[in-house]
Write a structure and sequence with these properties.
heterotetramer, A: Aspartate Aminotransferase, domain 1, Aspartate Aminotransferase, domain 2, 12 strands, 45% helix, B: Sufe protein. Chain: A, three-stranded antiparallel β-sheet, 5 helices, binds pyridoxal-5'-phosphate
């Protein structure tokens, strides 16, 4: 059977070169980087080189890069670390309604612990309004945390402008760039961000490893206490192999960013156009231009997302949905709702996220099968029946 | 995640469709919650001679509709009234906990259709006198 | 040159079977376990099976096992999670002076945040006194956290007795079992522990992956907020490959625990006896019997640990020391000091920790070289000169 | 971690040993802190004609001792007094920040030995009149 993976925003296949780069650090160079002897120094060297590469890629210095267990830990650390570390200055945090749960639930946790959080609205494209941001700032504001690009609809926020506002008001600015790394050239100084989260498994690296960029001078509490690793700020024996893998994946991603983007945009537009041409009552979610190269998010009226995913899976197509049923909760995507989509439309949303390993042929296969599946499900749907009646 | 039975009834749902001159029609759920089930009944001499459904919903909603219709097709009204959501779930070899509400929906859709039949036909169904589907707003 | 790795308490080489078990989860089965389609379900299955295996090995149920990024995160989570989750009941925690820094620094952090911590003394063998523990308990005590076996000197605490005391007093009991897993048969019910930390890289698994056992019903806060992973208690895309590796390593470790222990004890005793026979003014640290099978910790008078380690490294021997200079701080091991060793002796301590890949020949090689190195360093030492004068 | 120079002086330390009838002996540091340095001087006509050391301490303490003795062997007392800890560290191609105190120890051990010589011989060394090693207790 066909095996078409179009859920690259959920996670990606680890590139062969990345797997190969990691293996020696399981088998031969297994020393603890804190150790003084040769095997330890070898690990330390790999760690240092990886850190240097990440720093170079982000336009940061090596001492500003801290490795974590992934995007969620980076987000938790950045937000709680700054919040608890700057309680004396204020207790107000600004974020948006469309953040990843790693940010949202962390903010909610802080609300239960004495902090106030403003959740900015977004427009129908998923964009925040910079005036809203300015108006939300008060004397107690210690942190702005706004994601660089959204994982569901791919909308890219005006990070540089946000950075400027944060700086003018002397407020720390964290951005969750998990979906962006490997897709957009990044320079932390140019963007004016103070903290930035990334996660390797979104750019063809392994799961369970990430990093947090922390600008020199930013005051924040450590999150995992213990040994002196990561300059005393993040304890735990370093995940050397996966850190090497993260660095390798990052290197590969930025080696040919341009062709990666060109390729993905071509596939993406072919997919969007194909769907729009073939299926009625379909709407593209997210921003038309300010959008991640691989992201396609559409709402398909009269059908429900999980039924769609199951059907696609049976055709060998891996995709995801913002619908209730996939997550075990009954609420549809908070992102789509924040963008003003009615519940019933949000339930029928589908995300197809393209990656380097997808082909044009796969895109066509998806269009073909999706068309059939939608027809079949609509034929079963009492909502569609009404519409047909209306015509 | 799902049993083979669920996948079978999702992939090849039994009794999909409408009945033009149905004797009873029931619809429960709402689009906001992500599932709507609509049941059409044809009843002759207290016996459900035909049944069709249309469902907007997830895999287990569709499978539950399909299984429920199968279970009461050809049965008497009394037998149909005894169909519980648990029986539907069991016939499907189980549903994940978060999906049990789909089987409730199926039970209630059938009861709604029977109540509609009762109202239209004047045949009194004692058990449904106070029936109100609960799954409309969850 | 020789390559003798005797620092298995710091980290271990990943077994070949473990590496092989992980690779498919980088290359082929890279799906996100939260995803509904086949690739996701495959990952979920691997996750479930790994969790089942860990649960079985500990005598727990699968719903009581939570994967983390390692021993440090497990310790931080257990302690802060219980502390913040039970603030309403009390603010007193009991631990020991010889815990790993992941426990000690976490407790110190809690002290800065409104909690009181009692640090129990140990005797010269590194053993706590159960009466001290009983006396330390008060109405505000919400948590006892005592390590199962010490990472430096290998002393094994009376965990079962501690568990009984905790239970009698209705206090949660956490144990850091990072050094124990793979060396001692464990049953959480028999031990009466409520929370238990483990880390894969100590038993021939990969670095950067661990687990926390949380007994059903234990009230604790999540530590990383975000997605619904790990039953809503530990967010972040699961590190599937390394979790599979952890489970495989655990399986292998408990498959032949007895022969592993017999072998290590034989090597250990040969090493201890060899050193005692050949080098004067040497003292074995830790308990003679209640000791991890692979642990040798000795104090060698008149010389300093780092100089020793450097010299051993030049002979191809990887070992560690409780001395100042290895950690970048100027204090010698807090464990040795707590056991009553004078600073000057603690500075000259050496830990040789044996593992499955060590051989008798290597042990003899170490004895041989250590003898020469100690002689050379003592010849340079002004302290030794005085001693010679005394004779 | 360490430069090649440090490793060389640690592995093959120069001037290890004692001088039986030393003209000046200086010892600084203490065992509690993990390092003790002891310097023996033989001085003839204001010139350090021989120097030996014994050190209890880490790799950089030993290397610093070795390098310091090399740097002042054959030099005049005045030249020896000018030896700074920074010069020792630089001659070793640098020391890690946490190890800089080892080079301080070397500087002070030499000064202590010179002071001892001054006291024993009656030769006044103006610069050391108020000298007290700082590295005794850190
Ligand atoms: C925008 C965003 N933030 C955070 C995360 C969390 O990253 P991780 O799964 O590596 O913890 C993800 C992906 O899961 C994401 O898409
Ligand atoms: C007793 C003990 N606890 C905790 C840890 C921390 O584990 P990890 O390095 O996996 O975070 C270690 C080892 O480093 C240890 O030996």
């Amino acid at each position: 059977m066909k095996d078409v993976y179009m859920d690259n925003a959920a996670t990606t296949q680890v590139k062969k070169e990345v797997v190969e780069s990691m293996i020696p650090y399981f088998t031969e160079n297994y020393g603890n980087p804190s150790s003084i002897y040769k095997k330890g120094r070898n690990s330390k060297k790999a760690l240092d080189e990886s850190r240097d590469l990440v720093a170079r890629t982000l336009g940061a210095t090596s001492r500003e890069i801290y490795f974590t267990s992934g995007g969620s830990e980076s987000d938790n650390w950045a937000i709680k670390g700054v919040a608890f570390g700057n309680k004396d200055k204020g207790n107000h945090i600004i974020t948006t309604k469309i953040e990843h749960h790693a940010v949202l639930h962390t903010c909610e946790y802080l609300e239960r612990n004495g902090f106030n959080v403003t959740y900015l609205d977004v427009d129908k494209y998923g964009m925040i309004n910079l005036d809203d941001l300015k108006n939300a700032i008060n004397d107690n504001t210690i942190l702005i945390t706004i994601m660089y690009a959204n994982n569901e609809v791919g909308t890219i926020q005006p990070i540089k402008e946000i950075g400027k506002i944060a700086k003018e008001n002397n407020i720390y600015f964290h951005t969750d760039a998990v979906q962006v790394i490997g897709n957009i050239e990044i320079d932390v100084d140019e963007l004016g961000v103070d903290l930035l989260s990334l996660s390797a498994h979104k750019f063809y690296g392994p799961k369970g490893i990430g990093a947090l960029y922390i600008r020199k001078g930013v005051k924040l509490h450590p999150y995992i206490h213990g040994g002196a690793q990561e300059r005393n700020r993040r304890a735990g024996t370093e995940n050397v192999a996966l850190i090497v893998g993260l660095a390798k994946a990052l290197e590969l991603a930025y080696e040919d960013l341009e062709s990666h983007n060109k390729y993905l945009i071509r596939l993406r537009d072919r997919l969007i156009n194909g769907i729009m041409d073939r299926i009625s009552n379909v709407k593209l979610n997210g921003h038309i231009e300010k959008r991640l190269p691989g992201n396609v998010n559409i709402s398909i009226e009269f059908i429900e997302g999980e039924a769609l995913l199951l059907s696609l899976d049976m055709a060998g197509i891996a995709a995801s949905s913002g619908s209730a049923c996939t997550s075990g909760s009954l609420d549809p995507s908070h992102v789509l709702l924040a963008m003003g989509l009615p519940h019933e439309i949000a339930h029928g949303s589908l995300r197809l996220s393209l990656g380097d390993f997808n082909s044009e042929e796969e895109v066509d296969y998806v269009i073909e099968n999706l068309t059939k599946i939608v027809q079949r499900l609509r034929d079963m749907s009492p909502l569609y029946e009404n519409v047909k009646g209306d015509n | 995640m799902y049993s083979e039975k669920v996948m079978d009834h999702f992939t090849n749902p039994r009794n999909v469709g409408e009945i033009e001159d149905a004797d009873g029609i029931g619809q429960v759920g709402n689009a906001k919650c992500g599932d709507i089930m609509k049941i059409y009944l044809k009843i002759e001499n207290d016996i459900i001679v035909d049944i069709k459904f249309k469902t907007f919903g997830c895999g287990s909603a569709i499978a539950s509709s399909s299984m429920a219709t199968e279970l009461i097709k050809g049965k008497t009204i009394n037998e149909a009234l005894k169909l519980t959501n648990k029986a539907v779930a069991e016939a499907l070899d189980g549903l994940p906990p978060v999906k049990m509400h789909c089987s409730v929906l199926a039970e209630e859709a059938i009861k709604s259709a029977l109540k509609d039949y009762s109202e239209k036909s004047g045949v009194i169904i004692e058990e449904l006198k106070d029936f109100e589907p609960k799954e409309d707003h969850h």
